[in-house]
Write a structure and sequence with these properties.
Blueprint (H helix, E strand, L loop, with lengths): L3 H22 L11 E2 L11 H12 L12 H15 L9 E4 L1 H13 L5 E6 L4 H8 L3 E6 L10 H6 L5 E7 L11 H13 L3 E5 L25 E6 L12 E4 L2 H15 L4 H12 L4 H23 L11 E5 L7 H12 L1 E2 L1 E2 L10 E5 L4 H21 L2
Parallel strand pairs: 1-10, 3-4, 3-5, 5-6, 6-7
Antiparallel strand pairs: 2-8, 7-8, 9-12, 11-12
Helix pairs in contact: 2-9, 3-9, 4-5, 4-8, 10-12, 11-12
Length: 397
């Protein structure tokens, strides 16, 4: 058994690990300081639309409480296929080319376990969400970062991808719109990636979870719709972010049948099927009214502008946020590392942001902040943040 001193050390280690994970995910811990404001959250702050909730309740009332087919209920797969054709230009067979998952986290894990053999490599633009690397490690593979930079608004250069291809390279993983950088890849960039994928016979994994969050005149493209790309693309999406259904746990994979058939046993081993009532709620999300989304984007657009104006006032630089609901902010002018800045902000101003150090080597010197914060909290949180930033900037002069 652990001695008292050893137990205390172990508890401290676990506490630090828990805080690190919460910083990465933009979560507040159970020991959050009273009056703390989370400016780094990854959870949408608008409620699940009422018609979706009613569909979930209705499914329970109608007795949909048992297992569904592993691959998902037919009605939802058909609706996903229709959505992909209308919104993304993808022609998908709902019978064999759509797999409903228990959230997109599971979709990513199922993809890595079914696709990647030990020692194989997957390339990804960096900074990147840490879960991709964790999933790949569990699959026995290796994540290869492709650096992107603030001055380019974190747009990846296809030539940099090509430089890192080896005999072990299996796939290229794209996230657009991006968590954490808020980049939305240009069509020309995706054309370059598609050309490389075909040249080297690589698979492209395209995570499009934030697709509805695109600002100004930027546009989201699904690389699987490009000529010659469907047969080598795995498209991942879901309902958590765009329908505020984080707790409902529904995502999906769209890919050629040979991929889906290989994924099914792994999906079954993990969760058997996505929650039955949640699948019916997701069906309502796709087939029900969509006009409510305009109000969400109008509000997030206002917050985006307010964030950018506030950061400019603080003298902090960032990549222009084209999509998603984050901004990746450089804090190098404070003279602090990412971890030091996050700790100082939390301890001195009771404000939480995400440490860029958790998003790959290129994330050091940055923090991830969020638009998913009501204005009443956003104004107060930014006012606190400004005071801390100015103190550390003044010390460097």
């Amino acid at each position: 058994m652990l001695q008292e001193s050893e137990s205390s050390v172990a508890a401290q280690v676990l506490s630090r690990k828990a805080q690190k994970l919460c910083d990465l995910l933009g979560l507040q811990t159970s020991v959050a300081i009273k009056g703390q404001i989370n400016l780094g959250t990854g959870t949408p702050d608008f409620p699940t639309p009422a018609h979706i909730i009613e569909a979930g309740k209705g499914a329970l009332d109608e007795g949909y409480t048992s297992y569904t087919p592993w691959i998902g209920i037919p009605q939802l797969r058909e609706a996903i296929a229709a959505k992909l054709q209308t919104d993304n230009g993808l022609r998908v067979d709902p019978e064999s080319e759509v797999l409903v998952t228990t959230g997109t986290q599971e979709a990513l894990m199922v993809t890595m376990l079914s696709l990647v053999d030990p020692a194989e490599e997957v390339l990804i633009p960096s900074p990147y969400y840490g879960q991709y690397e964790q999933d790949l490690i569990l699959a026995g593979g290796r994540l290869v970062p492709v650096p992107t930079f603030e001055q380019d608004d974190f747009e990846v250069d296809p030539r940099e991808i090509e430089k890192r291809i080896t005999s072990k390279t299996k796939a290229i993983l794209l996230v657009s719109p991006s968590n954490p950088t808020a980049n939305v890849l240009y069509r020309e960039t995706l054309d370059g990636v598609a050309e490389i994928a075909e040249k080297y016979n690589l698979i492209v994994i395209s995570d499009e979870l934030y697709e509805k969050y695109v600002y100004e005149d930027y546009k989201h493209y699904s690389i699987g719709s490009f000529p010659g790309m469907w047969e080598r693309t795995i498209t991942i999406n879901g309902f958590s972010k765009c329908y505020s259904m984080t707790g409902w746990r529904v995502g999906y994979i769209a890919a050629p049948a040979r991929f889906i058939s290989g994924m099914l046993p792994i999906k079954h081993a993990m969760t058997i099927c996505a929650p039955a009532m949640s699948q019916w709620a997701a069906l309502a999300a796709l087939t029900g009214p969509q006009d409510w989304w305009r109000e969400v984007m109008t509000e997030y657009g206002k917050r985006r502008r307010f964030w950018m104006e506030s950061l400019d006032e603080m003298g902090l630089t960032y990549g222009v946020p084209r999509g998603a609901y984050y901004i990746f902010v450089s804090i190098t002018s404070t003279g602090l590392s990412s971890e030091q800045f996050v700790a100082a902000l939390r301890e001195e101003a009771r404000v939480v942001v995400g440490s860029g150090a958790h998003y790959g080597e290129e994330g050091e010197g940055y923090v991830r902040v969020s638009l998913a914060v009501p204005f009443s909290l956003l104004e107060e949180g930014l006012d606190r943040m400004k005071k801390v930033v100015r103190v550390f900037q003044a010390r460097r002069k």
